Amino acid sequence: MKKITFLLVVMASLSIGFAQQLTFIDFGSTATGYTSDGNWNNIATANAGSTAGLTANLIDSNGVSTGVTLTINDEFDTVNTAGTSSPDTSLPFPSTATRDSFFGETVTFNGKLEATGGFILTGLDTASYYSFSVFAARSGVSDNREALYTITGSSTKTGSLNASNNTANTAEILNVLPNASGEITFTAQPGTNNNNSSGFYYLGAIQMTKSSNQLSTKALELTNSLSVYPNPVSNTCSISFKLNGKSQVALTIYDLTGKSLSTIYNEKVSTNNFHYTWNRSNEMATGIYILEINVDGTKLNKKLILN
């Protein structure tokens, strides 16, 4: 029992000192090919179906319950399935998440008028920061269909995104603290540059990052592009992510107590696409470790499982 208690304490400290929790949400259609597999949260309705009151108990990217509930408390019109099937590979969103979305409008459409649409998150940790990467796409159009996203917790922050023919852009809204009740509200509506005659706006997918410390835009970009595969690791794994020009990159492995075990890479690189294949040392035993990625002082940590 003492060993189990110690492990739980270590894992608790790990979540505070190292980890960022990622949660992926796909808004759109229940039709075949439009829901995202794996540890994704699908907030979905039938084509032409109602979005009112849709709710989900969210899981994180590891499939673990977050304790957070998402509820659509401001109805969208319904589903649009004319998004992109070819999202930029640097995005953390698969085509199943980018090809559909919820939408609203500022004039009557489908017998409805939904000038705003949104949801509420409950059960959030009031001591943690929540950052949002928001994607939406509407292909085959020539006007501006910008959405304004307003996120309110203990303060209010905003971001904008034009969905028209979008394949690569996201709205980044960083470091929102929940209110005292552990809640954050998210509202979408047409942005100031939206010139569509119906005021169409869209919400397609979200990556939500929970962190104990405030994130920089650079840290979020690194989080979005990071790939460690395979994980669990038997013999080798490939580590890759995006860079913005020349960078000093260091990769260090820690144990669960925070002790540094090995710096497996530490060099100045000039490529925009970093790739490193790590050959596991026989001296490193089976177990759970932390891989720290340090790019010019911006640090990101990833759980590493060695078989």
UniProtKB/TrEMBL annotation:
<feature type="signal peptide">
    <location>
        <begin position="1"/>
        <end position="19"/>
    </location>
</feature>
<dbReference type="InterPro" id="IPR026444">
    <property type="entry name" value="Secre_tail"/>
</dbReference>
<dbReference type="Pfam" id="PF18962">
    <property type="entry name" value="Por_Secre_tail"/>
</dbReference>
<protein>
    <submittedName>
        <fullName>T9SS type A sorting domain-containing protein</fullName>
    </submittedName>
</protein>
<keyword id="KW-0732">Signal</keyword>
<feature type="domain" description="Secretion system C-terminal sorting">
    <location>
        <begin position="228"/>
        <end position="305"/>
    </location>
</feature>
